Records
---
Amino acid sequence: MTTGHIHGRKLDLLQGTLDLMVLQTLAAMGPQHGYGVARRIEQVSCDRVILNQGTIYAALVRLQHRRLIKAEWGTSDNNRKACFYSLTARGRTELEERASNWRRISDVMDRIFEPPTEEEAK
Amino acid sequence: MMSWVYAALARIRALFARKRLDRQLEDQLDAHIAFATEDNIEKGMTPEAARREALLKLGSRDLTRELHSEARGLPLLETLARDVAYGARQLRRNPLVTFTTVLTLAIAIGASTTIFTLAEALLFRDPAGVDEPGRLVDIGVSHKGVGFGSNSYPNYVDIAGRATSFDGIYAHTRFPNGTNLAGPGGPLEPVFVMETSTNFFTVLGVKPAMGRVFDRVERDAAVLSYGYWKRRFNRDPSVIGRTLQLNGRPFAVIGVAAESFHGTGVRAPDIWTPLRVNDSRVAGWLVMGGRLKHGVSRSQAAAELNVIGRVLQAEYPIENKEKDLRVAALSPLPGESLPVAGFLALLMAIVMIVLAIACANVSGVLLARASARRQEIAVRLAIGAGRSRIVRQLLTETVLLFAISAVTAIALARGMTLILVSQLPNLPFPIDLTVSLDWRIVAFAMALSFVAALMSGLTPALQASRRDVLAAIKSDETLGPGQLGRLRLRNTFVVTQVALSVWLVVVAGLFVRALLNASVLDAGFDLTGVELASINLREMGYDAATGAVHARDLVQQVRRAPGVEAATIATVIPGGFEGIGLGGLSVAGVLPPDGEPYFSPTWNVIEPDYFATIRMPLLDGRDFNANDLAGTPPVVILGEGAARKFWPGQRAVGNYVEMMRWTPGSQTPTGKKLLVVGVARDPKFGSLVDGSSNVFAYLPLQQEHLQVWTMVVARSTDGQPLTGVIRSTVETANPNVIVESSQAGADYAALGLAPWRIAASVSGTLGVVGLLVAGIGIYGVTAYVITRRTREIGIRIALGARRENVIMLIVKQGMGLVLLGGVIGLLVAAGAALLLKSFLFGAPALDPLIFSAATLLFMIIGLLACVIPASRATRIDPINALRNE
């Protein structure tokens, strides 16, 4: 499944990572509209991830279809009609599973790229 | 896991809410831009810069939409639907291109489908209404290792009793026989009766529609075919138990066969009756078949029958001399499938060539269209459409084109099949050539068109989607390297088309020439204006003596009938499929060929005036006359070939030959001396059954046993058909005798030439089609090249070039292609002609007339196809041409 164009010179996103980012963002920030999610991801990554922001919407619809998030139309702070996405219970469970999975993988990857020095190993 | 199920369901739901979901996405994207713009303004940008930045960061809106709908719905299905809609719009926009391509494709696909329909009906179709056709086989007899012929009754009984590989072996007469049915109080009517062994239905697994089929050893019982029951008895159930008088013998109707069952061959009988016993082991009149036991392969069965065949040869060395048993898959044409398959393969090859021409043509047209659409495609590539996406789009269009053609083709194939079947001359027996439109034929047409679409659409699509985006957007009219490649490709198409069409036209010409040759060829006799009416005196209770007398009376009455110039009786007529075996011929001091004990002549049993009636000249001696009777010395008339062979350089008349005949049960033949009284001209075509024999021998009916089949042959004074006259005379002479089938002599003669007629008309028609298609192709290419060069032409004319010179320039280039294709085509055609030489009735294979005519024809077509667009192009005002950009 396509995760979309990422302006890759900065950072290539692994397959599926965008979905995980979106889930985590919604977990941390509460209900958000598409632009909010995109902006948050860019900010948190210190602009190292520059999204082709359109791809966010494909990720949102994917997650929505799998009932991990739900969408509701509402009005924003500045009175604009917008679609707000929020995590469902299923989404929360999925996020926990995938987050721990991700940590394990990244831990292993860290060890592979920076093997512990001999003293540390002892 | 569950989430994927939800996702799948949601995707399907999304298909039906596309409009709403699309709108929601647009709303979200609008909101997105608005939020981002506000943020940017807060960061201190001007409103314009803020909005611009927001749009940039969102990225391509099209791409977002595409990704969104890919993630949301069923992308393959949706793009397919969109491609089809888009393709249909494109096709509608170019009605002329669409029309010509659909037409050419439909003709080519339709023609192939027609041939396939025939092949299926004749070769591949399992008989309907039987159980497990895969285990059914035909059992035939080969003589000296060739053929797949019929067997005798005693041999059938022995084989069926000895073979262990079969659940059952059945036998039936080769053809349904025309038979007299005495109607209830009404006149006699002809029906076609097939005699079968009583296990026929049970071995085949045919169920009755009503009553029962033969299920025990029985006599005097009749099973009706469903079609006959419907036609003649209007589905009356009370027919069961009724007695039918068939040739004067009573048969009780015991049942009606299942509706789907029409027999195993192409000749559909009306009624099945049990086989009669015939003790002759020589008379081969039964077609055999059987059902293999479960787990027994065809080759195992063949091996067993081979042994049984050898044993039968040893037991009856004379009757079964050099006769082996063979096994083949059940076929509607037992033993005849190989030549039929060969003939159909030839037709199929011709048709495939036309399809190839049409494909090349469509390729060319599509390539031109793709070139015209380069800008559009380049723009789509530039805004990020994938190349595979574009290729898929272009291919969808092509497939759509072919799908329309396939549907048209199927409709066309129906008509063409009927025309082809009508090309068959009138046959003296009913045939079941169900050319119904079944799924296999539809699948064939569809598959063929799909493959053709891929073949002809892929190259243009790949070419068109090349990423020479910049050049395309600039719409550079000069021929860059990319376009040159494209042109070369189109040129290849033109050369191929011309070559194939020349080939086709030459072959068609050769067939037509062969047909003309055959029909003007002096056949040695002349059947135009002659009527042939079959009667069956034997069945009506006449014996040798009374039958001969009645036959003579009959002929004399026919001679007196109005409009009759001459009349006679004969058993066979040259040029047909039937032959009779009366025995061998022995001549003192002359050795028969191949170590045979006797000559095997083509016999005929005739009344006087036979030679006059069919205008076959008597070269020496006399015709039979009123004095050649049962008690007078036996006489014979020989063909000229036989006379020369037996007494080279001498007069044959006055010499004796000996007719050698086997009687049932005896090991040695008995001889009968015959005095040669006349010598007749040999027919050019003998019977197609034993056409190899060139020894013709004629016996007087009055001195010979009456044959089962007899033909009243009459020549009319004015060419009017004599069907009615003969029929009424025959029935007046004896109300119990009826004419079973009546046929014009010309139809009869046409039967033998039917394959050539079909080949000539198929290849002739297709040759014309190929010619047209190739013409369109050449025209298309030239016209296309010229549009590309409009500006160049404009400049040349503006600079003072003369129109004629410009036209010449263009024509020279176009004609180069035509010449190249023509030369290739002629070379290929010459090779093909040499292969076909044996089919051409002695017409020269490398007929200079046909070859030069084809060349001339193509030069003219090529010239027209070049000159018309060229002269149109040069008529444009140079100013307009320059502004063409």
Note: Chain A touches chain B through 34 residues (CB under 8 Å).
---
Amino acid sequence: MSINRREFLKRSALVAAAAAIGVDSILGNTIKTIDKTGEAGTLQTKGSVAWHKSVCRLCGVGCGVMLGVKDGKPFGIKGDSENTINKGLLCVKGFYLHKMITAKNRLLYPMIRKNGKLERASWEEALNLVASKFKEIKEKHGPDALAFYGSGQAETEETYIANKLFKGHIGTNNVEGNPRLCMASAVGGYTTTFGADEPVGTYDDIDHSDLFLLIGSNTAEAHPVIYDRIVSRKKKNPATKVIIIDPRKTPTNKIADLHLQVIPGYDLAIMNAIAKILIDENLVDEQFIKESVNFSDGTNPITYDDYKKFLGKFTPEYAAEKSGVDAKDIIKAARMFGESQAAMTMWTMGVNQRVAGVFLNNLIHNIHLLTGKLGKPGSDSFSLTGQPNACGGVREGGGLSHLLPGHRVIANEQHRKEIAAIWNVPPDAIKPEPGKHTMAMFDAVAKGEIKGIYIMCTNPAQSLPNLNKYLKGMEDAFMVVAESFHPTETSKLAHVVLPASFWGEKEGVYGCTERRSQHMVKALNPPGEAKWDADILIEIATRMGYGKNFEHYTSAESIWNEYLKTTKGKDMDLTGATYARLRKLRGLTWPVPNENHPGTWHRFTEGDPMLPKEKAAGKRMYFYTKPDGKAVVFARPDKGPEEPVSAEYPYVLTTGRILEQWHTMTMTGQVPELLRAAPKPYAEINPEDAKKLGVSNKELIKVTTKRGSLKVEARVIDRPRKGTIFMPFHWPESLTNILTIDAVDAGSKEPEFKICAAKIERA
Amino acid sequence: MIIASMIVKTMLGKAEEVTLKLNKLPNISTHGIYKEDNIIVVIEAEKEEELESFAKYMSSEINDVLGVYPTFISADSE
């Protein structure tokens, strides 16, 4: 590399860094950007590198990234300093996105299993096989012998096509996606409490809050850019406080003012106790409660007084006994929350992946409704999402077995008719009964009841709980896997593997945690024979005889335009989020009902374009997705875990994520730098437990649950609570999910990945 | 040749101390402290391995670092 070239790159690096922190001068030298925004959302440099506006492929934060392309190949990555979410900052995973594109294990051509081995095949052969086999299964066993399992990482356009094919044409509602495993309880919480899914506010609330309650979330590692925004708020306003409720000490604790290190599974008692203290100490907003809140016991309406009686037993002392947390800290947390001017609660898998996940979501919303800390700057109950398009493609796009696009439900006849009309199918083409949820779907696969399944952009043979129960069935079924990488634990079991375009190689839209839809440009051609997932599905639809309703699509934009029709007039109206706007803007937060609308910060209050002004008159918030405009405070019992510890299994096993890896490592496992940073599986064990068991740091231990055993390295560290071990689930060579339990929340059907009983021995 | 930039964010009042520690690391140059607690860092490395675990090292080994946020990376074979 010449000095000039090196200096050019170094200068580019400095410009990107300076832009990320809003600085235009470094060491006295003015740094001027050399980029110019192009009409199609592409930034061009003076050299031969073209920088393309996109969205990070990994978690659900929705960070803007610029993909540099030179000579048709990925050149580099920089944070998008114009993006309102991350303002140019990235995390270490997003830093290596360009390396995932060029990974050695990119799948380049279709493969079909022949004589027990996956062999290269032509697209024609593979597509004909999938279409003919699916038709045969439908004819012999009915449409419900088929299923689709998608992803919160697929584009909205891809999920929309899959939904239309399976629900509208094949005739089965067995359409699911991996958000069932991570976000379903948040959906259940929002829909039961507010009448509609997704948060009231946006990330902008972080910049106005003076109290953050982080529950079941290691924000610093799982959502680093959100963590940075909290840190920035705390620095700007030193009076800002952070409360953490979590069984582990994590890097997020660096900014904690109070940590309630709860016994896993027993935080519902704490949340009810906080609600009781808020009421007892008159820290509630009685006017807001009167105007905008109903009460329910989960089955029937109750009165405010009934609710107070229900809370009677949830004294700080009771909650302390149940949760293992000091009663004084529970009181302190309640007062900090109640006395704050603006409070934001954020949570993720520690709340959702529980058999009481929906209940706990309700209890979080409860304290915001009781105090009126909602729908105003700095106040929100805000669920953090794990995947980049779980909200957009699956929750909004209706990619679950009980949903239809545009926040509609299968069970509603009018909803089915509306979608059938847009899909150009008869009104009764969509079945009235919801399909099988994820765990029921894979149970039916294991039992041979579902005989053909199409899996797109996800890896259930590693990510499902209690894996040993399901793997054989997946191997026996006619399983089609559309993936960018091979092998994965799932593609290894497939009958047909189809090579799919990856991030940067396809155009589409991602919708992130804060209701923001963002456009991603196609900057590269896919390698080998890989194709866009939507094109693959359209080819299969055509071969199955449904071509007339799929062949009119000419581009991702044409699919998006049809999808927009499903949102018109709904609470999540995206009509104004056209490709023309999205290509130029850094996304839009719905509702955005027309092309002049700037997007919405807070729903259900002034400024929400969908607010029925006459009905809402005189009220600060009107929840128009509820029949009488009132949200619901639920009296929920402090339900514990499905599998409490016992004499035989005395430890709580909890699973989760680490900074350098993401989910099943299909992507991050292709980056040597990330692999070296976190090379092998391990289990965190509390030093007191290690001493009791005679286990040393880095010694091999055997972790056993009722479902299986694994040998992993012990990491003796003061992070998990005594009596708890923590295992990341990333490494395919050591499948943590053979240990986890597949019991699900009764409402959301989300499994309890976070808690099961285990025993530990020296290996 | 790998060139990358990052923002290292520190506890309030600790940026200078952290900068001194960073300046001792190989292949790393710091380019000032901005807005009290943001250190601009550029890494120039011959091999990708030299970037390995940088963020992890910073976050875990230097107590006053609150976060390490990459902003740019390029890999150019010229």
Note: The mean pLDDT of chain A is 94.
